[in-house]
């Protein structure tokens, strides 16, 4: 019966598979809409002033002249460039091909640059240090990168990690406390990793051993860590600040000569140990996940735990240790708040960055490098928001503050389309 | 599922009367009648052993009892935390082995002192009588409303982390109507409520629409929309339309007298919004258990594929349930501006939207469970203020206790192992086996 009925179906439905294979129109449409926005706002309605973007500070080893971009003309040129990319996406779509992965990324970079020109040229003081902007963005992105890497490790193995916020906060608190008590920020950094791992272990035990819904455990853990650190901050740190909350900072370790390169010097070669660790972690997690036997096992457990179990992989142990490792990484990210950004702990110091890290991980499509790039974008948005307050723009700062969140919604719904998490993410595994 | 449970029970030879069975079912689903909700699925944690055994064991194993134990254990652990940072305790611990009674006494005092203050701030104290209890009910009102919103979405299998944003949007709209329009009593309040609720429903529906149309995960979208709402409110409070004339601080004018909920008991802040919350609780119970749409919501939450096969329009259900959830949370926002605060500030939503998640979890996503969980957490919130004033214990202890309660309730085996309440394993295994087999078979069928 099945043989006879499938044959005519296959014949009649011949165009159907190609229609199903035809890539979604979402990318071309989103790019076109954004190009239009750029043309109207940044180009046609663009400000007349010229934006000055300083690339190197006076006194640097290598001095590069500042970029001078006239607001309106620059906006037009960039908008046309954006349109070209949108047109390319449409062209590919008509040929039934998917847009290449780099296209949305390049588009985003150009769009952000156009936005920057528009904002700076419209400001009271149309001048900005590009080097400072980029360096500041990377600094702000460091905790986000660690947090989203934690999310990648957990979700790839099939455990949803909403508790990134708690891991960051726990790491930040422990780093400040231990660094003060021992007098060494480096010990604080290690303690932060341990604290993040501890938070993660609770998540792992509850979601793997007790099969409690992972999102619930994550949400509750965030509240628990927020309450614990807030309580201990109030009872221990506030009365004895010198004794418990003066951790000092991690030293900045510039690499000679390389750190003098404009723009990329400070972001790549003039970091604290945590900053260097971030680059190493991104590379190691990417390599580990996609090029090693361990990574293959991890992804198998996250996609099809039953198959992995059949092949002799201990699903729950793999999950447990991956989640723990993720927590340790997020804990290091938390330490950045109290050992690099500022040198003391305050209540709720992570301020919702854990959720932004979660967004970055989804924006980056569960890929370490994607998560890294998305974190940089959000770090940039944070930094822009604070710089705008200084140079004075017509755009209310609240809307700039909203931007990362709106971008995320837009990305999750439009640009990224049906974002596909690892198949078994969020589903506990019961053997048998 | 429920019918399968029952039939397998009936086959059990040592099963006691059917009355007890009924009681058990009510305990498990607490008004759910048909199916343990989404959240209890996790909280049952694969342990069905408590359904068997004697009546006493049944009571001891019941979810209600576990909930009470969870609260006790969480309070005890919170007390230990308070004691661990107490000065007297630290002092006596230095000569712990010489005079251990001093240490234990100091620990006990540190714990009880804080909790007595908590109780006096939330239920009764000699000075004010039961006045604090009225304050508890006032604080609990928005928690109950928002908790219902979260619980309703849970039942449809959706995680509504966005109650915070829904409260903010509804409070903003309600307050705007409250202080700019000047209408007669009754009509004005009605419009305040309607506008606020529509705002919250729309904010919730955005999530449902995005989920249904594009597959965007509701957890991410709700979290992001919380921040968007927060910054939007911050922006609005800095515009002339929302600020008090001649004042630069981000605070709105007072709402008109005609726009606020009447006070129920003079001398307290308890307002009509509390009765609205009671009605809403009943309404949600009715919707979930007696109406078609409620059945569809639960069907989608219990098994999306089966619901779709049975003809439920899943996208429509998703959008509707999020709109309802937003509307329920919106009642919380209206209660804040039209009842408790009477002005709009940046902190109008406080932590209500996030507390609502723990409230819904503690209430196991059932309407009345959420109601009582809201009362409990309202008492914590109201009492913690008094506690901080009297004993200096930071308010954050409430967060610790709240989250511990939910963690313990989510994992009943943990509580049972703490209190050594495990059912005898030998007699349990053969009885559980058929049920497990059924579960496996359905799991495999998917």
TrEMBL record, chain A:
Record-linked CDD domains: TM_PBP1_transp_TpRbsC_like
Membrane-protein topology: Multi-pass membrane protein
Localization in the cell: Cell membrane
Entry's transmembrane regions: 27-46, 66-90, 102-121, 127-146, 158-180, 186-208, 215-238, 276-296, 320-342, 354-378, 398-417
Keywords, in A-Z order: Cell membrane, Membrane, Transmembrane, Transmembrane helix
Gene Ontology MF terms: transmembrane transporter activity
Cross-referenced InterPro entries: ABC_transp_permease
Gene Ontology cellular component terms for the protein in this record: plasma membrane
One family name in Pfam for this protein: BPD_transp_2
Name the record gives this protein: ABC transporter permease
UniProt source species: Arthrobacter cavernae
UniProtKB/TrEMBL annotation, chain B:
Compositional bias annotation for Basic and acidic residues: 1-14
Region described as Disordered: spans on this chain: 1-21, 426-446
Pfam families: BPD_transp_2
Keyword Cell membrane included in the entry's annotation: yes
Keyword annotations of the record: Cell membrane, Membrane, Transmembrane, Transmembrane helix
GO cellular component: plasma membrane
Identification of the protein by name: ABC transporter permease
């Amino acid at each position: 019966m099945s043989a006879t009925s499938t044959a005519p179906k296959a014949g009649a439905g011949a165009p159907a598979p190609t229609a199903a294979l035809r890539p979604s129109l979402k990318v071309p449409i989103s790019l076109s809409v954004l190009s239009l926005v750029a043309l109207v706002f940044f180009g046609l309605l663009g400000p007349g002033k010229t934006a000055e973007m300083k690339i190197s500070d006076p006194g640097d080893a290598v001095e590069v002249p500042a970029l001078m971009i006239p607001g309106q003309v620059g906006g037009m040129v960039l908008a046309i460039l954006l349109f070209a990319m949108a047109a390319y996406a449409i062209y590919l779509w008509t040929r039934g091909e998917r847009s290449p992965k780099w296209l949305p990324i390049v588009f985003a970079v150009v769009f952000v640059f156009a936005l920057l020109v528009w904002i700076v040229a419209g400001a009271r003081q149309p001048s900005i240090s590009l080097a400072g902007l980029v360096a500041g963005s990377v600094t702000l992105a460091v905790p986000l990168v660690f947090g989203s890497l934690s999310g990648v490790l957990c979700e790839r193995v099939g455990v949803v990690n909403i508790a990134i916020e708690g891991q960051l906060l726990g790491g930040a608190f422990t780093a400040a406390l231990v660094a003060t008590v021992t007098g060494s920020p480096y010990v604080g950094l290690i303690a932060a990793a341990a604290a993040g791992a501890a938070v993660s272990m609770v998540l792992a035990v509850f979601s793997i051993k007790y099969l409690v819904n992972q999102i619930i455990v994550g949400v509750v853990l965030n509240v628990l860590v927020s309450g614990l650190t807030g309580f201990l901050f109030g009872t221990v740190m506030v009365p004895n600040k010198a004794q418990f909350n003066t951790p000092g900072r991690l030293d900045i370790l510039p690499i000679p000569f390389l750190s003098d390169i404009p723009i990329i010097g400070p972001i790549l070669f003039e970091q604290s140990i945590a900053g260097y660790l971030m680059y190493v972690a991104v590379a190691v997690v990417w390599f580990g996940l996609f090029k090693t036997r361990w990574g293959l096992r991890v992804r198998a457990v996250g996609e099809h735990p039953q198959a992995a179990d059949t092949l002799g992989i201990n699903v729950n142990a793999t999950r447990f240790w991956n989640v723990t490792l993720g927590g340790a990484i997020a804990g290091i990210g938390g330490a950045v708040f109290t050992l690099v950004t500022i040198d003391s702990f305050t209540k709720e110091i992570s301020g919702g960055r854990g959720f932004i890290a979660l967004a970055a991980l989804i924006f980056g499509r569960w890929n370490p490098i994607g998560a890294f790039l998305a974190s940089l974008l959000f770090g940039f948005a944070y930094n822009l928001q604070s710089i705008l307050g200084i140079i004075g723009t017509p755009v209310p700062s609240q809307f700039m503050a909203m931007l990362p969140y709106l971008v995320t919604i837009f990305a999750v719904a439009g640009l990224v389309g049906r974002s596909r998490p690892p198949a078994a993410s969020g589903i506990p595994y019961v053997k048998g | 599922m429920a019918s399968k449970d029952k039939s397998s029970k009936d086959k059990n030879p040592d099963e006691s009367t059917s009355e007890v069975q009924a009681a058990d079912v009510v305990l498990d689903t607490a008004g759910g009648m048909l199916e343990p909700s989404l959240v209890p699925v996790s909280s049952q944690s694969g342990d069905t052993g408590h359904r068997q055994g004697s009546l006493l064991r049944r009571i001891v194993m019941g979810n209600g009892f576990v909930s009470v134990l969870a609260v006790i254990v969480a309070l005890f652990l919170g007390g230990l935390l308070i004691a661990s940072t107490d000065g007297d305790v630290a002092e006596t611990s230095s000569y712990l082995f010489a005079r251990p009674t001093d240490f234990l006494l100091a620990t006990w005092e540190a714990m009880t002192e804080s909790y007595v203050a908590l109780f006096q701030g939330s239920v009764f104290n000699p000075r004010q009588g039961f006045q604090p209890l009225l304050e508890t009910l006032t604080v609990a009102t928005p928690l109950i409303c928002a908790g219902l919103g979260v619980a309703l979405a849970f039942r449809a299998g959706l995680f509504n982390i966005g109650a915070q944003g829904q409260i903010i949007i509804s409070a903003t709209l309600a307050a705007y109507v409250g202080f700019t329009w000047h209408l007669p009593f009754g009509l004005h309040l009605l419009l305040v409520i309607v506008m606020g609720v529509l705002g919250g429903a729309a904010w919730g529906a955005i999530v449902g629409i995005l989920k249904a149309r594009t597959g965007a995960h509701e957890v991410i979208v709700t979290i992001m929309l919380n921040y968007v709402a927060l910054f939007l409110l911050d922006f609005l409070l800095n515009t002339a339309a929302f600020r008090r004339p001649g004042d630069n601080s981000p605070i709105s004018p007072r709402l008109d007298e005609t726009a606020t909920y009447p006070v129920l008991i003079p001398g307290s802040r308890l307002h009509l919004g509390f009765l609205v919350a009671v009605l809403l609780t009943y309404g949600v119970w009715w919707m979930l258990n007696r109406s078609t749409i409620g059945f569809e919501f639960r069907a989608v939450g219990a098994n999306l594929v089966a619901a779709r096969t049975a003809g439920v329009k899943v996208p429509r259900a998703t959008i509707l349930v999020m709109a309802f959830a937003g509307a329920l949370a919106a009642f919380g926002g209206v209660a804040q501006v039209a009842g408790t605060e009477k002005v709009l500030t940046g902190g109008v939503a406080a932590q209500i939207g996030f507390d609502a998640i723990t409230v819904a979890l503690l209430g196991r996503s059932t309407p009345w469970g959420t109601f009582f969980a809201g009362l409990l957490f309202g008492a914590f919130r109201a009492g913690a203020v008094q506690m901080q004033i009297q004993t200096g214990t930071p308010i954050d202890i409430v967060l610790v206790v709240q989250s511990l309660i939910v963690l313990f309730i989510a994992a009943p085996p943990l509580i049972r192992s703490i209190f050594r309440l495990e059912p005898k394993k030998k007699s349990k295994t053969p009885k559980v086996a058929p049920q497990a087999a059924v579960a496996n078979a359905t799991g495999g069928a998917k």
